[in-house]
Amino acid sequence: MSTLLYLHGFNSSPQSIKAQEMQAYLQQKRPDIQFICPQLAVTPADAWTQIATICEALVEADEPFGVAGSSLGGFLATRVAETYGVRAVVINPAVNPHWLLKDYLGEQLNPYTQQRYLLTEQHIQVLRELRVNTPSCMDRIWLLQQQGDEVLDYREALEYYRFARVCIQKGGDHSFIGFHHYCAQIIRFLQL
Fold first, then answer.
1. Which Gene3D superfamilies does the entry link to (predicted)?
2. How far is it, in rounded angstroms, from Cα 6 to Cα 53?
3. Where are the domains of the chain?
4. pLDDT in tens, the chain (192 residues)
5. Is this model's pTM higher than 0.90 or not?
6. Which of 8, 73, 117, 187 has an alpha carbon 20 to 30 Å from 46's alpha carbon atom?
């Protein structure tokens, strides 16, 4: 059985609209594909440990897998593609979260889980260390980007992923409006 690992964004959860749409698509059209979408830990180090543990288990079981991620999840999906040699789809990805999240230092509340926590400089440093600075995996990545993203500057993603497959749309927003139209194409790209 092949697996799709879906990574949600900052202060999000498996209950996000895109995660739910992808899971529903797989249940209806591709029940042969296992869907894994963990509730990621709030700290980057713990989140990466969770992701790496899942990936290592899939590698150990010799199960084919691909990864998709949105926003901060796209940043982490790029790391998965680079580390494990798999294909990745990144949706309105955060390219430099160590810059972006500096504006969010301090107390945070995840609106899905109601978990409160502190975002610290140490967390920013871990994100800096997790960044793939010179990626060799761009031939295995598909960027889905909407120019109307109100949270992230889409031009950063276009520059960073310039050697990847790119789908850029005018309008939209950070949630990536119309994501459900891409579910089948995502599975085909991931070769699952």
1. alpha/beta hydrolase
2. 14
3. 2-190
4. 899 999 999 999 999 999 999 999 999 999 999 999 999 999 999 999 999 999 999 999 999 999 999 999 999 999 999 999 999 999 999 999 999 898 889 999 999 999 999 999 999 999 999 999 999 999 999 999 999 999 999 999 999 999 999 999 999 999 999 999 999 999 999 999
5. yes
6. 187
